[in-house]
Automatic annotation (TrEMBL):
Functional summary from the UniProt entry: Aminopeptidase N is involved in the degradation of intracellular peptides generated by protein breakdown during normal growth as well as in response to nutrient starvation.
Protein name: Aminopeptidase N
Alphabetically ordered keywords of this record: Aminopeptidase, Hydrolase, Metal-binding, Metalloprotease, Protease, Zinc
Organism: Pleomorphomonas diazotrophica
GO molecular function: alanyl aminopeptidase activity; metallopeptidase activity; zinc ion binding
Amino acid sequence: MSQDSAPVIRLADYRPTPYAIDKVDLEFDLTPERTLVAATLVLSPRAGTAGEPLVLNGDELTLVRIAVDGRELREDEYEASADRLTVKAPPAGSFRLEMTTRLDPAANTKLMGLYRSSGTWCTQCEAEGFRRITYYYDRPDVLSVFTVKIVAPKIEAPILLSNGNPVSSGDLGDGRHFAVWHDPWPKPSYLFALVAGDLDALEDEFTTMGGRKVKLAIYVEKGNAPKAVYAMDSLKRSMKWDEEVFGREYDLDVFNVVAVSDFNMGAMENKGLNVFNDKYVLADPEIATDADYAGIEAVIAHEYFHNWTGDRITCRDWFQLCLKEGLTVFRDQEFSSDMRSRAVKRISDARLLRSQQFPEDGGPLAHPVRPEQYKEINNFYTATVYEKGAEVIRMLKTLIGDDAFARGMDLYFTRHDGEAATIEQFIACFAEASGRDLEPFMVWYREAGTPTVTIDESWDEAARRYTLTLTQETPATPGQQTKKPRVIPVRFGLVGPDGKDMRPSGIAGAEVNGDTLILTAPSHTVTFEGLPSRPVPSLFRRFSAPVKVRQSLSSADLIFLLANDADSFNRWQAGTTLAMTALVKATQQVRAGQAPSFETAPIDALGKLLDDPALDAAFKALLIAVPSENDVAREVAENVDPDAVATAHLAYRRTIAGRLEARLRAIVEADNAAADQPYVPDAAGSGRRSLANTALDLLSITGSAEAMALVRRRFETAINMTDRMAALTILVHRGDAGAEAALAAFFERFGNVPLVVDKWLSAQASAPLPGTLDKVMTLTQHPAFSFGNPNRVRALVGAFATSNPTQFGRADGKGFGFVADIISRLDAANPQLAARLLVTFRSWRSYEPKRRAQAETALRSIQGKPQLSRDVADILERTLA
Ligand code: ARG
Ligand code: ZN
């Protein structure tokens, strides 16, 4: 097939461009019928390249004019195709290239480049969207200073925005007006943005630590400004936090955020003009859940933090994507930890990593945090680059300590400001700041795969010596058969019988750095001397490394850690390990035709924790949250039968609900009693709701009339979306007799709020019921659904594929077939969206043989389609390899 011939881009082939772009002037003439873009570039040859052909990127472009130094080029002097422009013999010195391209933003369904969203003109240029606007060196290492003039009809687009600071604006007298923006900070093309539309603004201001007054504005569709209040508050807290924690100050007179309803990703950090998926801006208690609020806070922070880690210092090439993304995720995680509960945030992040990144790292799409080759860069905006990339930074901090880490960051900011940098340059700053050789640490960037650390222990009573053997192994991943040992920080405690950490008189066998062992070899035997009794080991506290741990602690030890560990993360981990062990065993029993059975001691231990007034509600909610069916399937790893997992999972939840019933009921009732308290989306309020809704979910599993009455009551009396949505989801997922009426009432009330329609779609798509697939197919015809809107597609089809293991994984293959058909159908219009959906098949080889064959048939059906996009062809090729 022709797609297989997409060229491989390799890190090893990196070369600078022959020309630099010193200055860019863009003029956009926007009308609903057509858009003209006049670009004027001042180019100059880099040393020794004068006179070389100038070859610029394009993508689906139409050139209408080209001139060099004011003279229009003859046809034999250049070649212009949709995806490339060549000026055969440019002048020897610096020269001025003028190009005019004609675009059709209304027909741009790929949502890359300049497109229209609900009547607003907007752009998305990362990674390679700028080349859909004009011919350019569309790569991150070509930095230039941009001046942008926008001309547009006044009625349709009273608001005209671009990067940098506003320079001038005025009326053109013929119903059109214009605005000029200038961005003094040199930037690569992927950070370019333009927005033109009839939008409302929520305005505010922020004074930086250096005394600069910055005008802040969040632009939204008409009438939505009140829903941007939380985003604005998050923005101001982010600006302050980056000054206090990283010493980073904002550097323009304005900072604008625009929320659009059609967006392929979460948001984009364009210099001074962040463009967001409206999902990460719009909130009020009526329409947004606690999770939505937390998401807004995190994404607003993330994009703002990119101003330094991404914009002021960018990436030399796309292989270095984690240089800005891993680091910026690390920064937003730290911010959220400071705003909320650090322990709860750490647990949520570890859960996310395990559910999203571990399966990626252990499957056909595995790639290093810093990949060395790609066919389509959009397919590398992954959990590995983002979330594992953040964990690598966190390990670096653990390894060299907080002070050296802070000095390394400062050095990075001063040394590379204004540059397009590499991971090697970044790491060199920390090597210098700490005096540590970080070459061995680079394995985390260069090699894919999740290491497993196997732990063996022994206790020598006579010698009072405790010994741990820690052995690491990383499985082979595509293209990387053998793996080097990694530097693994193991934050540890040795817990004594009184629940306190014991202090050994000596430790040998590995480097020790405070409470952290540093593993560097394939295996370490570490001895701890002078202990009064055998300790219970608490390893990888705070999830100190993104690894899998194989350790056979007894139930008694795990229950002891659950009750006593000084480290909250490991208390939760002990509970999760107990639950997971029970769930895997129960799944095996089901597959062997036996009834699943469960130990009661771990459940009673959870009950005790629920009674502990010292523990906060959010933490308790995490303690009783049962690992998901997908989590269990991942642990089972091969020959997975999702029905067997579901049967075991249900039996386990019934057992918990039965044993803890009185306590769970008391939690729900206490929360009902607090129902009149005003809604505040902070850590305390969301913790209380999360505990109550988790308890209600467990209670409902018994199906008792009493429990379901509690759920219905919550649905009817809820005064916020968190509780209403939790109750609706339970009714729908249990197939309750009141579910249809509840869905209808919900739609009646919120059917005109697209972001809430998404919740309504997802609740139905994730219902573990035999009728779900038919329902989902019917919903694709619903007037509130549209294949053109990525949020709608993800809410319905994405939720079905990712959150409904038994129905996506139906034994008859119809779930796979349905999703495959949608991918084929979407690919031409929006390849990025189609490719994202396709990733839901990545673990197809883990199924039992029958489902594996069904999944393969579905994948091959996509492969058989003509004209696959590079995005889908690349994922497909790797998934089937
Ligand atoms: N840089 C954006 C972020 O903040 C993501 C943009 C990704 N866009 C894309 N088309 N791949 O994470
Ligand atoms: Zn980012």
